[in-house]
Structures are given as C-alpha cells and as structure tokens.
Amino acid sequence: MTRPRAVLVSGAALLLLALPLPAASAHRASPTPRVVSDQMLAPFNLDVSSRSILVADGGAEVVGALARDGSLTPIATDQPGTSGVARSRDGRRVAWTTTVTDFSTFTNTASGLTVRGPRGRTVHSDTLAYETAHNPDAGVHYGVTDPNPSACVTDALTAAGIPVAYTGGVDSHAYSVAAYRDGWVVADAGANDLLRVDSRGQVHTLAVLPAQPTTMTAAMVGALGLPDCVIGVTYDFEAVPTDVEVGHDGALYVSVLPGGPESPVLGARGAVYRVDPRTGASHEVARGFLGATNLALGHDGEIYVAELFGGKVSVVRHGRISTYVELPGVVAVESGREGELWAGTMANEDPAAPGTIVRITGGHEHGRLPVHD
C-alpha cells in the first residue's frame, strides 16, 4: 500500500541525503559540541553509562562500544538496518533493533529486537510477525478527515500518489529501544506504536500513537503542486515514533516524525508525547520540530530533541521550544551522567562530512569520558 509517510531508512540509502550545513557562527557557541569520533556513518542511537557509550551505526551495520581512538569495538556485526541500542537496567544485557528493507519498494521485510545477555545468550523478538498478527493501528484512520471530500480533492491526491483515506496497514520498523522494568519498550516507526518486550522475548502492545493532523495552507498546496481545492483540507498523517525514553516519573516520552514530506514544505510538524504505560494514553508535550529523530531527558525536567532536517538540538522547557545548539546532521541525542549531552551526526555526501559522535557541555569539559580502551 502506498502511504504518505516519512521513510526512515537505514544504512547507505540515508547517507545519500544532502543535508544543509549552516554557516559557522562568528561567536563561540555555548553549549559547545566537541567531536570525540569522526568514524561514524549513521549513528542512529546512543546509550550512555559510566561504563561506555554504545552506538547503533546503521550505515556500518554495527552495534558497538565507542573506543578511545573513535572507532567502535563491535558487540554485533552484520546487523542490517540497526538503529536502536540500550542496556538493561542492571547493565547485564544489551538490546538492539534491526530492520531489513527492500529499497526497490521501500518495504520492510524483517524487523525485530535482539537481546544479548550474560554468556552470550541471545533472544530475538520478531516485531514484524507481531505486527502481521495484530496490527495494533488497524482501526486508526489516516488521510483526509472529511468523509466526503470533493471530486477535485480526491482526483488531485490520487494523481499525486497520496491516498485519500486508509487505515493502518501492516508494517514494522523497530527503530528505537529503551530498558523498561525487567524488559524493553520499542518505538516501532512502521507500526506507529510502542511495543513492550518482556524478559522472555514476548511482544505486547503498549500504546498506539495518534494520527497527526495537518491542515493544508495555500503555501503547502502550492509547494506540493496541488490545485487550490486542497487548501483547507485536513489530512491525518501517521505518527512514526522515532525514539522512546523512560522518565523519572515512570512515564514514557516519545518523539514522532509525522508521515509525509518531513521538510519545510509542510512545516515543522514533529512532536513529543508523554505516554502513560499503564493505559497507553498519550499527551502532547510539544510540537514544532523539523525531523524529530531522537530525544533525551535532562536532569531538571527538560527534554532535548534531535532535529535532523533542522540541523540542531532543541530543548523543551515547560512546554516551550528553543534551540539548544546548532548541529548539522544530528540524528541522535542522549543525556550523560554529569549533565552533558552526547549526540550522533550523519555522514553527509554533499558537502562531504563524516558521521560523528559529539559531547556537548556548557562551554567546559569535566569528568572522564566513558569509552573503551
């Protein structure tokens, strides 16, 4: 089924994106990013602890620990489309996500969570099989909200390859993972939901993220090359959750990158939700991010959001969004133990730039870097 969603792809395909690099500021920025590795391709997710920094590099198909020379000491190699990584709460297990994509059709043919424990014991949970059997968002309406759109609207969207109306189809892209109780919670960007994976590897639906409505303005319609009859039409896009973190309050915090063109064409539509894990109910915390691919929770209640297409990390304080630091190509962000942030940036083709891991502080360095010798 053709669906107007932002395609989160892994590996070389995403590396072909030509991301804009903002001009350098004449002033020293504070907070200050410091590159600790320039050997990454697509560091989609990080896990930071006092022991080490774990990286899921989807471009290299490697899950590993950051070494002092900037390389990755492999935990697992040949992991197609790996994008999420997390440690268990006791630090004894490591979990990562993988997705196999047929790039000729942009169809995900396999997706799941792998957990490796002591003595190398490995458990794999097949999220695509779960999605095929249950399809939790099957009852969610996407597309034009008007049940009787005009013939002009219907014809225009159909000609543009945009479905007029549909319900959630079968798709799984296990994108991010966080330790949760004695198991895990997975943000499935294909299924538009959060999945709970228990200690035995069993998969359960935790929450379905809501559709993301956008009312088409004249500027949007013109940019998409659609006729004026589409102006004022409200379209429900898919949520596409990209990251999940467990808050100090026990709630889950989720970044979403809505379907459709995630670019200035339709505006900055990414959002952060707070999800009650007991009920699955979600509450919007903030909206207005351009390519919200990852988030991190600060020590004082603030939320940091990686905006891939905005080229920056933003911070949410008391529901208000502001730029925290400009960081071209940022795709991942994670909080450190000493109040610092860690971030991953994508390798870029034009202009050429390596993928990096950076440490962001308020203008000064302190503490020991948690990297492997």
TrEMBL record:
The keyword Protein biosynthesis does not apply. It comes from the Bacteria. The keyword Calcium does not apply. NCBIfam families: ScyE_fam. Residues 1-23 form the signal peptide. InterPro entries: ScyD/ScyE-like, WD40/YVTN_repeat-like_dom_sf. This is ScyD/ScyE family protein. Keywords: Signal. It comes from Phycicoccus duodecadis.
